[in-house]
Amino acid sequence: LFHQCLLLFQVAQFLIEKGVPPMSQDEHGSSVLTYAAINRNYTLCSFFSSKISLSVAAKVDPDKSLRTAFSALFWKLTAEDLSEDIKTWCCSLIKAGANPNMLTKYPILMSSFPGVRCTVLNKLHIEEPSAPQYTPLMMAIYKGNYAVAKMLLNKGADVNFPDDKQRTPLMHAVRLNDIKMVKLLMNFNYDPSKDKNPYSDVEPGSFQKTSTVNLAAQDANGWTVIHYLVDPMPDYCYANTSLLNFLAELGAPLDTANAAGETALQMAVRLQREILVTALQKLLNTPEDQKIKIELSLPVPPSDDVQWDQPISSYVEDSKQYLEKIDKESMDTDDQSSLEPDPLSGFESTGEIVKDAEKGIPYDIVMTVVDLNYGAYGIYNFYKMQIIKHKGKELYILFTCWGRVGDTGQHQKTPYSTLADAVKEFSRIFRAKSGNNWDDVKNFQPQPKKYRLVQLEKKKFTRRQSVKLNLKSDVPSKLSTQKQNLMESLAISCSSLGTPVNALEQVHILLTHYLNLT
């Protein structure tokens, strides 16, 4: 890395000595300093800014993507913090006069999917006049980069500076349902890493708002942060009453009407957001006789126009009873059949799963954890543990396996000479990963940012049975012959094909054939 930096420095120095202007621009209006900042190359950033002076570099005109040397630093921002040397150079630019609130056409789009912070565009230049414009602080908000957001706020970024649609940073944070970012915008000294329960209800009076964030701000459409909480994206909301109560306690107005004359409560009623309607009416102290109750309309049941002579039996109940029957038959014949060591353990044939005699359950668990705010893509990981006894000797193996759901993951085998030692380590890991005690596993309580146990009643220990279905019936059909043939073909094809994809392809062929006949 040192030699690479030295080579870059030597090439840049050579070009300057040969008379190449350090701030010459290309067809995009971008200079070498802009590109160096985009790639956060400290060697070149420092070199070129020293050639023109830091004060000139701080106030250089924006390119066609509205990037300055300062705002270009955040073009490729992720959830990871900036390097120390780049942060130092960044702060030096602000001190030298760089505008930390520069609106830039950053390569992101607001996502319409819950849990997805933004859509990232793989573009080096965005010059369309209609492209959205955001500040560096908003870029940090959309990337979930609390460290960079904190640095910008403490170095002079305006907590109320809006985007091109007059949406404030707080509106964007609320729209993302990011209560940690909301708290940071309220108090620049807030440390998300030390907040053990950021998503739980905040005790009244326990949080101090020290910033000048405007809780009553309205965007170009007259929306407030409460409007964005009610309707953060098309057809979906988080119904986050904890965030609503938090904003209300700190002074966010609840009854402001937008440009269409609609308050947040009226919007919630129109969108049938029952939980938020109830919470808003409680905060607004709406009299009982004036409270609005949401009556959700049920979908219209489909009709096949067939007149049945008698009530149709419930296929749900029939299926449930049949599955219980074959499940019982399976347990009667071999109730230990699926208590098998994981194939990765290497003890499939030579080992057996140990049972906790006191609880009547095996030392065989699977746990999962989900965190959408982790990194660029979030995490969905699993953790599996088994205690396996060797059939031929007094040896106990603690098998652990972990990784991302859908992958094989990594695994480890730890041998113990006694069951007590294996159980002790099993219990210790279980406590560390889940926040629960194994002794009280049947009363498992999910803990924030910890693994959750796959419910024991859903984790059946029975071998999958081959279910034989008799689809023949003596009851005469009231459908036309063509419809009878179609339904029979669909039932037979979908039950015999090996994969869902093949089944869907076959259904498509049959439906096409039917439509051609009719």
Question: What does this protein look like?
Answer:
The chain has 518 residues and is an alpha+beta fold. It has 17 helices and 10 strands. The chain has helices at residues 2-17, 32-38, 42-52, 54-58, 84-95, 136-142, 146-154, 169-175, 179-186, 225-230, 241-249, 264-270, 274-283, 315-334, 419-434, 481-496, 500-517; strands at residues 108-110, 118-120, 351-353, 355-356, 361-362, 364-371, 379-390, 396-404, 410-416, 452-453. Strands 3, 6, 7, 8, 9 and 10 form a 6-stranded antiparallel sheet that branches. Helix 11 runs parallel beside helix 13. The longest helix has 20 residues, at 315-334.
Concise summary:
Its main location: secreted. By secondary structure, the chain is of the alpha+beta class.
